[in-house]
Design brief:
Layout lengths: L1 E9 L3 H12 L1 H8 L1 E9 L15 E2 L3 H5 L6 E4 L8 H10 L3 E4 L2 H17 L4 E2 L10 H8 L5 E7 L2 H13 L3 H10 L8 H4 L2 H15 L9 E2 L7 H9 L2 E11 L4 E11 L11 E8 L3 E8 L3 H17 L18 E2 L6 E9 L4 H11 L4 E6 L6 E8 L4 H13 L8 E5 L3
Parallel strand pairs: 1-2, 1-4, 2-3, 4-5, 5-6, 8-10, 10-13, 10-17
Antiparallel strand pairs: 7-9, 7-11, 9-10, 11-12, 14-16, 14-17, 15-16
Length: 428
């Protein structure tokens, strides 16, 4: 049995406290599986007196996380405070420069500074691990870097934000408008302090950018992720999608094309019978398409104390076992800075708008679509009691830039009474 692996944890929120609980409750199991004991030596958090439901007796307390990161008596620095800059970034840099392994759940920091931190880790011959940063308890990073390492990945697809999936599911099952469910989710504590990180697709976009780097051997480029949130999805959209055999999901897709790397996070209509279409509530699902493995589907809780602290522990045990691989599955210096591209794959689109209820108005909209080579698969006009006629159109396959030109042309007519909402229909 080797000497103990000594840990320092910065951040004792939901996840940090969860890690401490696992270390207390599963110490013998961890030792037997990793070949050495794992010892928590020091901690740091905003409040020293807060009751976290777990004993902190006997642990050294550091008020400054930079001091914690540089302590000589720890082997692994676990960063769980969050934020895409300092002090998290400085603390991680301090730990890496001090020859310590680092584990983080900080997706925002990795999406912004992952390349330089990976280079620093490799320069100092230590590990930078982040299983908990992507999809909570789902072992997405490990599957990509290890299980599918012999595959060329053709596409990544998935639902990567449980809060958005909860909101969309609740809207559908309870027939409630977006605003009502949003307020409900906020009261339940499901939303970030800045809710647009969730509902705007930013949180999920961070995760997609990280997975793309691993899958395609590219430098992380979050700015290249085309991001659209769920704020404009209405209960009418939910109902219309259901009637046509679809469900609406905030869907991430990443794939390498002849033009460059395509990354997008946007609400899409997917078949209600597909695995993603059947995903309920706050669950996540990630699908990898490998050239030899075929389609691999991972489903599980994407957040919360148990799943996320479980992911942190998997990284701790990896380090205790001596398992060491490059941060993004290959040398950081070999990662390619890839040209970002807009969506190059055609798809059908769902379009919802309101038109003035008068002769010739529908013809104007159809003409604008036709002028851009977009044909209509189906058109629906719902019941209404005023001059505004709600209209839903489903197009045949077209490119998004072509659709955008058509929508601009539609807006220039006097036909629409509200800006059209367009949602991609994704083949899953």
């Amino acid at each position: 049995m080797g000497s103990a692996l000594k840990i320092g944890i910065a951040g004792l929120g939901t996840v940090g406290a969860g890690v401490v609980k696992i270390l207390h409750s599963h110490s013998r199991l961890i030792t037997s599986r990793s070949g050495k004991s794992v010892e928590l030596k020091a901690i740091s958090a905003r409040s020293r007196s807060k009751d976290r439901g777990v004993s902190l007796e006997g642990l050294s307390w550091e008020s400054d996380i930079i001091e914690l990161a540089g302590r000589s008596d720890i082997d692994v620095f676990v960063e769980l405070i969050g934020g895409d800059g300092n002090p998290a970034k400085e603390a991680i840099e301090t730990a890496l420069k001090s020859g310590k392994h680092v584990i983080t759940a900080n997706k925002a920091l990795l999406a912004k500074h992952g390349q330089e931190l990976a280079e620093l880790a490799e320069k100092n011959n230590v590990s930078l691990k982040f299983e908990a940063a992507v999809a909570g308890g789902i072992p997405a990073v490990k599957v990509l870097t290890e299980s599918l390492a012999g595959n060329k990945i053709n596409r990544i697809m998935g639902v990567m934000n449980g809060t958005c999936n909860y909101i969309l599911t609740r809207m559908e099952t309870s027939n409630l408008p977006y605003e009502t469910v949003f307020n409900e989710a906020q009261k339940l504590g499901y939303l970030e302090a800045d809710p647009t990180l969730d509902t705007g697709g930013i949180d999920a976009g961070h995760k997609l950018a990280i997975l793309s780097s691993i899958a395609f051997g590219t430098q992380i480029d979050f700015k290249a992720v085309v991001t659209q949130g769920i704020e404009l999805v209405s209960i009418q959209d939910i109902e219309q999608a259901r009637e046509m055999g679809y469900r609406i999901k905030l869907l991430g897709v990443s794939q390498m094309t002849d033009e460059g790397l395509e990354q997008r996070m946007q609400p899409c209509l997917v078949s209600a019978n597909s695995p993603i279409g059947q995903l309920e509530n706050a669950m996540n699902m990630i699908i990898f398409d490998g050239d030899h493995s075929g389609q691999i589907i991972l489903r599980g809780a994407g957040a919360g104390e148990g799943p996320t602290s479980s992911a942190v522990m998997s990284d701790i045990i990896d380090i205790a076992r001596g398992n060491k691989i490059p941060t993004f599955g290959q040398s950081a210096n070999s990662l390619i800075k890839m040209k970002p591209v807009l969506t190059s794959t055609p798809a059908a689109y769902y379009i919802r708008t309101k038109l003035e209820d008068s002769p010739g108005v529908l013809a104007k909209m159809a003409t604008a679509l036709g002028n851009n080579g977009i044909s209509i698969d189906q058109m629906r006009q719902t019941q209404h009691a005023d001059v505004a006629a709600p209209v839903v159109i489903v197009t045949h396959k077209t490119l998004p830039e072509t659709l955008n030109k058509a929508l601009i042309e539609i807006m220039k007519t006097d036909a629409t009474l509200e800006a059209p909402v367009a949602l991609r229909i994704e083949d899953v």
